[in-house]
Q: What sequence folds into this?
DNA sequence: CGGTATCCCCGTCGATACTG
DNA sequence: CAGTATCGACGGGGATACCG
């Protein structure tokens, strides 16, 4: 993207921030992603080549730093600088506006894999039973290769598996993609979806009752949509 | 720009907002521009074709409305909807971040015409003498065709002229482009630039003394730069 | 003033394959 | 895991000219 040739602070900020994929990459970094592959999982549409290029641009702009660079450490990582941290409220502002006013989602936008990936960072593990909890999410209307996902929760950590883990499933959640996505977005309350059967939960009664408390929704779910 | 295919509110908002020129067009609308040519003067780099296309996109997205559309009125105008008004704090957030953290401006970015255009909306006409006040701005290092501009202030209204108006000049301000731009951006105080002669003001003593109070700076001038 | 029409270039991005 | 190399196509957008 060539520059705007204006010294307005909005124009200067835009040069970097409005490049394609940039805000989504920053969203992942704000959400705590540090490794290349984790950032990529949160922005699956981008090619690795381009992701690398964007990360280099962010580093050059002083928004991202690579703490381990040059240390020979085997764990490359990306981190937000102070300038990057200050983008948090900016992104929150854009997202908040999007929650209120952006277009409706199309079926195209409903990527089940991404839904699970973004959910996995917003599970209240503190309320889960001791030890390991395995939740299987089954999307009844998804193509075979992204029908089922497994969330393995242990010691406050949540891992997303695309194949059945070797552990027993404690809770099976079945739903169409859109139904769960709309709950996630705060457009419908979970309990009403459970009551009318659009989302079903199977497992031990204790687990089933606790499930709604585990599921933290999108950070913007509480902002009321205007359109 | 093709869509991101994510139902994240940030992604949905980005689809429209991160299109090239979009934020600058919205900046002009937020600043009060209503007519096509006024928007264009604030974003001189864009082609009319593309500007029209972007405005249509904004209208389609519900951010801009055309109150006179279909009325046969001869004064076409663009206006922000409620959704558009709610972008104000979002743009202010991005610009505020830019003021603190964006790259330094290059000589390329120092368009004198744009500086005058953006200044003309931030003149404190209430403090000016009754009747008409004409300020000539002369950029000593600018190419001939954008060396001089005239601000004609009358009845609370400020007009930018590229050619000498038929009225006498009350105040002549001479400066290099960068010097005035840096004052505008809040990087240096005006009075020190006046004292050291990097910016010179000629005219009746009363006018000369009043001038600094007329010149409101960039809305972001008071935000301290961090880099 | 407020746009259109047309042409064409070049940079961006996507696809695929490969590597330390 | 964390990228790199190479290639090709597309389309956004820049330039110029024109119109009601």
A:
């Amino acid at each position: 993207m060539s520059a705007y040739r204006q010294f307005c602070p909005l124009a200067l900020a835009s040069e970097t921030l409005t490049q394609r994929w940039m805000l989504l990459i920053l969203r992942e970094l704000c959400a705590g992603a540090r490794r290349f592959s984790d950032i990529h999982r949160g922005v699956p549409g981008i090619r690795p080549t381009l992701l690398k290029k964007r990360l280099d641009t962010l580093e050059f702009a002083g928004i991202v730093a690579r703490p381990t660079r040059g240390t020979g450490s085997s764990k490359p990582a990306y981190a937000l600088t102070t300038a990057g941290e200050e983008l948090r409220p900016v992104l929150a502002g854009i997202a908040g506006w999007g929650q209120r006013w952006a277009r409706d989602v199309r079926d195209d936008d409903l990527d089940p894999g991404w839904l699970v990936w973004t959910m996995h960072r917003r599970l209240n593990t503190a309320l889960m039973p001791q030890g390991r909890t395995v939740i299987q999410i089954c999307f009844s209307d998804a193509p075979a290769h992204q029908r089922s996902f497994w969330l393995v929760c242990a010691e406050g950590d949540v891992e997303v598996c695309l194949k059945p883990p070797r552990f027993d499933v404690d809770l099976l959640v079945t739903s169409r993609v859109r139904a769960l996505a709309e709950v996630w977005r705060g457009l419908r309350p979970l309990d009403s979806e459970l009551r009318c059967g659009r989302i079903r939960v199977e497992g031990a009664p204790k687990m089933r009752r606790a499930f709604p408390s585990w599921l933290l929704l999108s950070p913007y779910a509480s902002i009321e949509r205007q359109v």
